[in-house]
Amino acid sequence: MIKVGIVGGTGYTGVELLRIFAMHPQVQLQAVTSRKEDGMPVAEMYPSLRGRVDIAFSSPDNAKLTECDVVFFATPHGVAMAQAPELLAAGVKVIDLAADFRLQDIAAFEKWYKMPHSCPELLKEAAYGLPELNRENIKKARLIGNPGCYPTTMQLGYAPLLKAGVIDASHLIADCKSGVSGAGRKAEIATLFSEASDNFKAYGVSGHRHSPETLEQLGKLTDDKVGLLFTPHLVPMIRGMHSTLYARLAKDIDNAALQALFEDAYKDEPFVDVMPFGSHPETRTTRASNMLRIALHRPDNGDTVVVLVVQDNLVKGASGQAVQCMNLMFGLEETTGLMHVPVLP
Amino acid sequence: MIKVGIVGGTGYTGVELLRIFAMHPQVQLQAVTSRKEDGMPVAEMYPSLRGRVDIAFSSPDNAKLTECDVVFFATPHGVAMAQAPELLAAGVKVIDLAADFRLQDIAAFEKWYKMPHSCPELLKEAAYGLPELNRENIKKARLIGNPGCYPTTMQLGYAPLLKAGVIDASHLIADCKSGVSGAGRKAEIATLFSEASDNFKAYGVSGHRHSPETLEQLGKLTDDKVGLLFTPHLVPMIRGMHSTLYARLAKDIDNAALQALFEDAYKDEPFVDVMPFGSHPETRTTRASNMLRIALHRPDNGDTVVVLVVQDNLVKGASGQAVQCMNLMFGLEETTGLMHVPVLP
Amino acid sequence: MIKVGIVGGTGYTGVELLRIFAMHPQVQLQAVTSRKEDGMPVAEMYPSLRGRVDIAFSSPDNAKLTECDVVFFATPHGVAMAQAPELLAAGVKVIDLAADFRLQDIAAFEKWYKMPHSCPELLKEAAYGLPELNRENIKKARLIGNPGCYPTTMQLGYAPLLKAGVIDASHLIADCKSGVSGAGRKAEIATLFSEASDNFKAYGVSGHRHSPETLEQLGKLTDDKVGLLFTPHLVPMIRGMHSTLYARLAKDIDNAALQALFEDAYKDEPFVDVMPFGSHPETRTTRASNMLRIALHRPDNGDTVVVLVVQDNLVKGASGQAVQCMNLMFGLEETTGLMHVPVLP
Amino acid sequence: MIKVGIVGGTGYTGVELLRIFAMHPQVQLQAVTSRKEDGMPVAEMYPSLRGRVDIAFSSPDNAKLTECDVVFFATPHGVAMAQAPELLAAGVKVIDLAADFRLQDIAAFEKWYKMPHSCPELLKEAAYGLPELNRENIKKARLIGNPGCYPTTMQLGYAPLLKAGVIDASHLIADCKSGVSGAGRKAEIATLFSEASDNFKAYGVSGHRHSPETLEQLGKLTDDKVGLLFTPHLVPMIRGMHSTLYARLAKDIDNAALQALFEDAYKDEPFVDVMPFGSHPETRTTRASNMLRIALHRPDNGDTVVVLVVQDNLVKGASGQAVQCMNLMFGLEETTGLMHVPVLP
């Protein structure tokens, strides 16, 4: 059994980790920290876990995280980099679901997250936790920067095209839509039911933190200069992410060959489903599961390919992906504890 | 492995059975019938099942249901009673999720479902599939009438009070609220998103089919005459049911004793959670799980007890309960394949 | 033109007043106060008002409210009673949408709102702002306590029955359901989209502030002792309230006579619609309008009558009702500026 | 008073016309036809109209539409062109909310709508009902093809850029999102609450009827060849449309000049609101109103401009726009009966 600790278990990625671990056959939950809720049983805050998670939140000071095999940070940006050095020194692996170890470009990190990076040398050894594109490094890593939700869809959607060199990498347009849980469990006006329900809006159109992360990763897949215009939108649904990715074709390629690029790329991937050409994946077909689905379109057989990507932002876009990384780091079957069938309807 | 067939796999209780079976370790899915979709892969209609359910819908005529160990009917009322005799004769167990084998009172059945009952003698041997109140009969049964969603909440909510004889059984008021999936997957105006969203209404206030079923079962729990006023409402959510049950106390009893009635009644039940006195259970704490949660209130310490009951109408209210019955009928651990943690948020 | 001021224009009842006033032919908006948003154009916070409301929020200190003809308080409980004396002394009428002037029973006020009442003598002259039951007093009043949303439905639903003396007043059960906007525009976890959406729950079952208000008012309609069990629930919709009211009949009365009680009571009321006996009113049929609709049921022709009442909690349940009072206080046609057709779908 | 008839009053654009007309000071509703609902009071189907619309549906055969001044067709494609000749011959003006008179390119019409056009000569005289771009023709017209909902947003969003010649017209990308009411009031599985709620998907990505209409109209605004990639998506909300329009800049132009193009183009338009540069308009700021709001972005000050456009798909995207045309055709103030303030929250 892997002894697991969670720092920051009160947010949505935290409770999603708890849900997954409660059904994971190789995990023993050791500690869930919350300074504010110290002593409160986890299942009191989340009655969905009654009878399934027996421990209480503990103060970070008392949590004995160094006795864990791995600690997940489901915390605001900046927390993991403060605590990771001590844990790693004690032989504990670390998986950060925030941004502290995602961006190798420290200047970009500091610009977008508005804080200095406190351990640049650790950052260098951190593995970017997207198994489909970085599996071997994850297996060997003791420190993971878990990808952002939007970047996961953009990378898996563009990767086969960029690797094959069939698109103009300089003018990618990613029009992305996320469920409201992506905003986290924070007391804020903008994500109140009465504000976000029966409504649709874009946000961060002039610039969003997930652009530099995505650009850095996409740049590894091609020698061409990558340019990305990323537009996030907020959808009145709890979970789910839909990315509509546009790319101009730079080479003559027919639709069957396009489709083959994706099917070949992901044929052995348990969590990436390439649907038939021309399909319209729905976010709900991934709800509460670690699946990500992709479908290709070529409107009017023109020079633009449209890649549709859906996932559950809290699972493949966050906590499920983190557990997938953990499985790899500890030599488990990659799918262990992650084979939940999506909840539909 | 139990060989399972599903008649009518295209509705919501059907696809929920498919979701549960895809994760059930002791089930081998043999056939899913749909006359209309004969030949279509199940996962084409429900892409959430891609890679998890490999078979196609088959016409009822070709489905070889007699080779199954058990057949579930997730069909409109009237279908199961037409096919059950042949299956039972062939040694196949039958679980009907519709109303054909719920009501022993044939006159009531015929009044409310507006069709004659075609096999009254089979009806007599059918077990009512509510394990918490009828477990031993279910274990021995070859034919199950799976309870309605509303009746499940009303019975489990009122049972400890009726058995203890502490309430006035003659004037029960059950104000119940259901998510829209309870109306099924039928092309109808009234359950369109644009009709049912951002809206709330009662329906069937002057009389609803679930009243006679509930009355018949509640009557078994007490010698008193049971009177029930049942008011269903439609909530703009997909899954979930919340029953607010009112009863006047007929005996002097304090709150601790009331609470003890429920805790004692359900202390060994894996799927019934009695929450602390005065709790407010939320439907989402049962979402996509087989859990049912109960909490008691005594407003102003007056003479009325209020019982709040929540469940997922498609799981404990339908397909999960049916699988719970199957587990019992085949001597499996009752919780096999049903221990999914509720999906929250 | 009536010169109107609004104290606390940033909440939902405040912006609803602004929406109504922007279309009210006899109102000139003088000031909208918000200490926090001083100087911000109202239409910057609420772009729905761009081009329709030209003024900015002003600090309460600078708002010159004493130059208004009437000031509405769309504020937390306790604000209006602090400022009302000065305004009234300056000849300004006051309409409070909070609870400061609703309850004549000061002990009850202080128990439920947990603050001393600062002007009991003003409270005595305050008129309870429910025109259908208190029209003449409102016309003459200079100070209005605008009813709570739930109490409006309970009073208009029970009044004809209580006045006629046909029900047992001692054991009323009101099972009520409200849209989320009733919780106000406050940064709170419990009303986040990801918490309140796709979910249903009761709250305050053991006791709620709207009980004493309703009891006090219902008591005026009958000499019998009134007992009320009031259970509020939260519905995942923005606007709308549905009250399901139960009462045992104390006299022999047929359904036509019951229906006549309501039709007679409300035949001249522009904002109360008595639907045909046995109807199921939907909340959306009142959306964004000042209409309240009522329908009667008599399940199984038994001894219990069920009254279904729907309204928009922000309009007839709050701001629209307040404007209705204003119209009466200033001698306008009662319906002025309030004849918006409900928005459906 | 203008005598108005509506053919097909049972769908969402029909009931929205009824809602608007019930508050329009210059309209007298003469007839609302529905073959299926002949004789049923309109307010029985739509209780939101109780007390506001007194007439019943009448069979098209009896409706005496030739006595109207104007007839609106809120019908499926193909109905208006069958009946328009007789009405026009009788001196009745016709406004079709479907596609019969939108596309001058008959081949495109027949390809996309899969029916022959029965009156090509009438089509030639039909005015395209987008007042902001075609006001003078509408004023003189007796026959209007009311624009599609998506095309309205795309045209008003791209028009200033195309007219000024500052963008590459050959590769426009319009990523559009619509509320579910856009699918109409039809009994269909795909738009059931349980299918469309808590879900997001694209549809018609490989080709959609609104492309040829938009292309034909955009072509009038520029001598350049226009190429458009249009991707519609379905949002779990009732009303609202959000179009995210991308265009590569073909000329050196700064952001202030871009903004000025839009402010100049729409400075006298009562229903088009150009928001400050960099704003994020929300669909709900137009809910139940005829307003359309636009905001510009220039991500990273790069070579791509992003135009965000929101409207209520049933009002400015359909019925409100049709009434706006009617006002122009009959010499009324263009805003008559259309100045409803958006409903927020």
Briefly say what this structure is:
The structure is a homotetramer of 345-residue chains. Chain A has 345 residues and is α/β, with parallel strands linked by helices. Chain A contains eleven helices and 14 strands.
End-to-end separation of chain A in angstroms reads 34 Å
Report the average pLDDT across residues of chain A: 97
Could you list the spans of chain A in which at least 5 consecutive residues all have pLDDT below 50?
A: none
Number of strands of chain A: 14
At CATH level 3, the topology of the largest domain in chain A is: Dihydrodipicolinate Reductase, domain 2
Element order, helices and strands of chain A? Answer: EHEHEEHEHHEHEHEHEHEEHEEEH
Strand order of the largest sheet of chain A: 3-2-1-4-5-7-6
Question: What's the architecture of the largest domain in chain A in CATH terms?
Answer: 2-Layer Sandwich
CATH fourth-tier homologous superfamily of the largest domain in chain A: Dihydrodipicolinate Reductase, domain 2
Our count of helices of chain A gives 11
What share of the residues of chain A does DSSP label as strand, in percent?
15-25%
Strand-pairing-aware structural class of chain A: alpha/beta
Q: What is the 3D shape of chain A?
A: globular
Largest interface: A-D, 49 and 49 residues
Q: Roughly how many Å is the radius of gyration of chain A? A: 20 Å
User: Could you say how many structural domains of chain A there are in total?
Assistant: 2
Assembly type: homotetramer
The biggest sheet of chain A, with number of strands, parallel, antiparallel or mixed sense and barrel status, is: 7 strands, parallel
